[in-house]
Amino acid sequence: MSDKIIVPTLGESVTEATVSKWLKNQGEKVSADEPIVELETDKVNVEVPAPSNGTLELISVKEGETVNVGALLGMVNGSSKQESGNIKVKEVKNYSPPKKKSQTIEKPKKEIKPLKLEEEEPLILNNFHQAEETKENQQVKEKQPSISPAARKMAKEGKVDLTKIQGSGKHGVILKEDIMSLMGFKPSPSERKIKHGPEERIKMTRLRLTIAKRLKEAQENAAMLTTFNEVDMSEVISMRNQYKEEFQNNYSVKLGFMSFFVKACVIGLKNFPVINSEIQGDEIVYKNYYNISIAVGTDRGLVVPVLRETDEMSFADIEKNISRLGEKARDGKITIDDLQGGTFTITNGGIYGSMLSTPILNPPQSAVLGMHNIINRPVVVEGNVEVRPIMYVALSYDHRIVDGKEAVSFLKIVKESLEQPKRLFLNI
């Protein structure tokens, strides 16, 4: 009997997918519920399991082809299923149980092992290897070319491999002129060019196509504007360093910066509800719940899983859910439900070294907060110049419903909450 492999329901508003990869070849044995084919949708990858034990009898759709929900992907021949009642038990004749023996408890004797010569061997070998390593290091040191101080400084700044340079000085000493002569050296073509040629064409994935489409729509449909501010992260860093070990011991998760930002944004959204709203036709829909979307970079592209009801979460809850969703995203196991229902987005370009950027809206949301890297900068504190860890933050918003006053005031609340993080625990 053959069982059909069918494209499952892929989630709300998702009606088609691309066959990304067959995990089994035609003719291979499969087990029930074992992932057999991977589908790529506009948002996530979905693994379709085998309907039963058996052999992959037929592959109906090739990799790269588009299929609709309910379409036939292939067939599994279930003839290899194990049938109950076919297991034979070998009869054992003339069996008699062993007689019980009286047990006597003897006190174990302490065994004294004589010292063997073999036990000294690791120590001897270790000393031998250390001598060999010392000898090799000496040989490497002797092979290193002599170099003048000026040339050494240039080589260090330019990260030049000195072993590939023939010195022109007395006794082969590398001079400053030898380092400068490398400026006329013509580099070889890149490995990528050698492997793929001057150009290479790769079809965009459905996820990348969807990202491109949605970002372009956001620019065309929304009146997007960005406002900026800077945050002194001294108090957050101090609190994090003071309690991070205790926090991890109590909750089995690290205390990061994102939980502070989520809490600060919730306070801002409660004070300015329009930033937590969206446009539907000629109406503004205010969301009285706070589902924060957290942008996560993966090998396949950017995905934005959602933390739900963040106003009812503790710091530990936020960190645990961020860790869980980030791991799912990187492993390609994120689901449609994980990506839906967000009301506001936070994206952290600072982990990649970004100093400043203008984040793009995540439709249909009306605002997105961009975090950036933390740099020690000179700032004026009560008339004195001090070095403080500063982060620039950016709020992009839809100017059709969010006024500049509201956007600037929201960002100011976020700034004040982070510079006085005790406010986050008091929810003020």
CATH superfamily of the largest domain: Chloramphenicol acetyltransferase-like domain
β-strand number: 19
The residue ranges in which pLDDT falls below 50 over 5 or more consecutive positions are 80-95, 114-125
User: Sheet with the most strands?
Assistant: 7 strands, mixed
Q: Provide the CATH topology of the largest domain.
A: Chloramphenicol Acetyltransferase
Mean pLDDT: 81
Shape: globular
How does this structure look, described?
This protein is α+β, with helices and mostly antiparallel strands and about 425 residues long. The chain has two domains: about 1-80, RNA polymerase II/Efflux pump adaptor protein, barrel-sandwich hybrid domain (OB fold (Dihydrolipoamide Acetyltransferase, E2P)), CATH 2.40.50; about 205-425, Chloramphenicol acetyltransferase-like domain (Chloramphenicol Acetyltransferase, 2-Layer Sandwich), CATH 3.30.559. It is about 30% helix and about 25% strand. The protein is built from eleven helices and 19 strands. The protein has helices spanning about 120-145, 150-160, 175-180, 190-195, 205-220, 235-250, 260-270, 315-330, 335-340, 405-420, 420-425; strands spanning about 1-5, 15-20, 30, 35-40, 45-50, 55-60, 65-70, 70-75, 225-230, 275-280, 285, 290-295, 295-300, 300-305, 305, 345-350, 365-370, 375-380, 385-400. Strands 9, 12, 15, 16, 17, 18 and 19 form a seven-stranded mixed beta sheet that branches. A four-stranded antiparallel beta sheet has the order 1-8-6-3, with no helix packed on it. A four-stranded antiparallel beta sheet has the order 5-4-2-7, with no helix packed on it. Strand 18 (about 375-380) and strand 19 form a beta hairpin.
